[in-house]
TrEMBL record, chain A:
<dbReference type="InterPro" id="IPR055140">
    <property type="entry name" value="Thiolase_C_2"/>
</dbReference>
<protein>
    <submittedName>
        <fullName>Thiolase domain-containing protein</fullName>
    </submittedName>
</protein>
<dbReference type="Pfam" id="PF22691">
    <property type="entry name" value="Thiolase_C_1"/>
</dbReference>
<feature type="domain" description="Thiolase C-terminal">
    <location>
        <begin position="244"/>
        <end position="389"/>
    </location>
</feature>
<dbReference type="GO" id="GO:0008299">
    <property type="term" value="P:isoprenoid biosynthetic process"/>
</dbReference>
<dbReference type="InterPro" id="IPR016039">
    <property type="entry name" value="Thiolase-like"/>
</dbReference>
<dbReference type="InterPro" id="IPR020616">
    <property type="entry name" value="Thiolase_N"/>
</dbReference>
<keyword id="KW-0414">Isoprene biosynthesis</keyword>
<dbReference type="InterPro" id="IPR002155">
    <property type="entry name" value="Thiolase"/>
</dbReference>
UniProtKB/TrEMBL annotation, chain B:
<dbReference type="Pfam" id="PF01796">
    <property type="entry name" value="OB_ChsH2_C"/>
</dbReference>
<dbReference type="InterPro" id="IPR002878">
    <property type="entry name" value="ChsH2_C"/>
</dbReference>
<feature type="domain" description="ChsH2 C-terminal OB-fold">
    <location>
        <begin position="47"/>
        <end position="106"/>
    </location>
</feature>
<protein>
    <submittedName>
        <fullName>Zn-ribbon domain-containing OB-fold protein</fullName>
    </submittedName>
</protein>
<dbReference type="InterPro" id="IPR052513">
    <property type="entry name" value="Thioester_dehydratase-like"/>
</dbReference>
<dbReference type="InterPro" id="IPR012340">
    <property type="entry name" value="NA-bd_OB-fold"/>
</dbReference>
């Protein structure tokens, strides 16, 4: 089995670019990954791209060869769709391809165009990540589904509503602080706990600032085999050493746990086992905080906290940039933005930058050697976890 | 749109004949199901859903999808009926009034926005 190195990463600015096509966004990210890696496009043997709503948002199916063409590639190209975990799966399959020896150079990433539609339309297109018959037809939006999980969490662990909201507001505030120096982030500005608490409600207990924004953007990660990196004298010190994926019942009503995310438990266990580490070895994490409660569930699934213990982590400072285990130094989905199908790839890109030392927040974790990314689909009916390590 | 299995299940609540499907090993699910995701059984029978269930989690939705725009704000809840859980919109109660642990009974109502049939939950 070949080792896998991150040779280069590329991101567009995450934000509102309603006039820019998906193909243009992806081409920008791919080009910057190529330049970062110093690998010629002719060497790319495969493209794996994540996208969720392209057929709805752009009227564009059969996206992968189109994006390959836009990125100047002439190699097999496949689209992966797993709701918000689309790019996570695209990267995971790229890792498996390189490991198997089938290819030495694979470009993986994702793209989403969302702001060309108004909020109600986007709400409707995001809702298709839930169970259409039993949830969407019962008025469950994406924020509502996470709100149902948040209320179940508070009920399961005996937390009162005011404490729940305050602890969640601390998650949002922390992630905004982290986004301030990140040039790719949608919101490079502070959000106080008070502002988060005063925001209009979306689905109680979640207010506007508990929810990630609507975002356009693309991500690209150029993965190469260890042999290719050595042969071409690439500066590729970050390795992907673990990958895992899990699944759960689609509808909340069919889950064993409404306040836990077993798909992410399984993905984390698989990725840790693959990497030969446990949760204690992790120095820094990028997790899927599409809603503030999602970050809480993520850090519990990743084994950093027992169920019911993760809620206060941001308030206590433990997951802040200067805490023991910084979470979402990029700003997370909350402040960096959540172009759905691009997100999993952007987490890998941000983590690679953090570990390489060229992320604006790298100095917060100067000795970090092991980073974990957690990418969830829908209400965590699917989850993908990766372990990255500084290899040399 | 017509969806075999689901439409029959939903409309059974009109006649107070709500049901779930049970596999040969006693696992309860909502239809349509061909294979039990718990045990792989393919033998199902229709069983009566208890007349009321307990709210397991609930939220007040303020920002709705276009198909529920005129309904907002509304409460949507996951309700435990024992053999199966059901998700629906709470009616006949002010938003925020129904809480986790409360008893509700299922019925068929209509979306105020589209007029489409929806599963509604009424406080007992
Ligand atoms: Zn069964």
């Amino acid at each position: 089995m070949s080792g896998v190195r991150v040779a280069g990463v590329g991101l567009t600015h995450f934000g509102s670019h309603p006039e820019r096509t998906g193909r243009d966004l992806f081409a920008e990210a791919a080009l910057s990954a190529k330049e970062d890696a110093g690998v010629p496009l002719d060497d790319v043997e495969q493209l794996n791209v994540g996208n969720f709503a392209g057929p709805l948002s752009e009227g564009q199916g059969h996206l992968a060869p189109l994006l390959g063409e836009a990125a100047g590639l002439s190699c097999p190209a496949t689209r992966y769709e797993e709701a918000c975990a689309s790019a996570g799966v695209a990267v995971r399959e790229a890792v498996r391809t390189v490991r198997s020896g089938e290819a030495d150079v694979v470009l993986a990433g994702g793209v989403e165009r969302m702001t060309n539609h108004d909020t109600p339309e986007v709400t409707e297109s995001l809702a298709i990540a839930a169970d259409e018959l039993f949830e969407v037809r019962a008025g469950v939006t994406f924020p509502a589904a996470y709100a149902l999980m948040a209320e179940a969490y508070a009920d399961s662990f005996g937390i009162d509503e005011a404490d729940l909201k305050t602890d969640l507001a601390n998650v949002a505030s922390k992630n905004h602080d982290n986004a301030i120096p990140n040039e790719y982030a949608q919101y490079q500005r502070e959000l106080t706990v008070e502002q988060a608490l005063d925001a209009p409600p979306v689905a109680e207990p979640l207010g506007l600032f508990d929810c990630c924004p609507i975002t356009d953007g693309a991500s690209a990660v150029l993965l190469v085999s260890e042999e290719y990196a050595a042969d071409h004298d690439l500066d590729a010190e970050v390795a992907v050493v673990g990958t895992g994926q899990g699944a759960d019942r689609m509808a909340l009503q069919d889950r064993e746990h409404l306040a836990r995310t077993p798909a992410a438990d399984d993905a984390a266990a698989m990725a840790y086992d693959d990497a030969g580490i446990d949760a204690d070895a992790v120095d820094v994490a990028e997790v899927h905080d599409c809603f503030t409660i999602a970050e809480v569930l993520a850090i519990e699934s990743l084994g950093f906290y027992d169920p019911g213990e993760g809620l206060g982590a941001a308030r206590r400072g433990e997951t802040r940039a200067d805490g023991d285990l910084p979470v979402n130094l990029s700003g997370g989905l909350k402040a960096k933005g959540h172009p759905v199908g691009a997100t999993g790839g952007s987490q890998i890109a941000e983590m690679a930058r953090i570990l390489r030392g060229d992320h604006p927040n790298s100095d917060k974790v100067a000795d970090a050697e092991v980073g974990v990314t957690h990418n969830a689909g829908g209400t965590v009916a699917s989850a993908v976890v990766h372990v990255l390590e500084v290899a040399e | 749109m017509s969806d075999a299995g689901f439409d029959e299940w939903l409309h059974a609540f009109v006649a107070d004949d709500g049901y779930y499907v049970e596999c040969a090993n006693g696992h309860g699910h909502l239809p349509p199901r061909r294979i039990c995701p718990d045990c792989g059984s393919t033998a199902f029978s229709e069983e009566a859903l208890p007349e009321s269930g307990t709210v397991e989690t609930i939220t007040t939705v303020h920002v709705a999808a276009p198909s529920f725009e005129s309904d907002a704000p509304y409460d949507t809840a996951v309700v435990d009926f024992g053999p199966a859980r059901v998700t629906g919109i709470v009616v006949d109660a002010p938003t925020g009034a129904v809480e986790i642990g409360d008893e509700v009974e299922p019925d068929v109502g209509a979306s105020e926005t589209t007029g489409d049939d929806v599963l509604v939950l009424r406080p007992v």
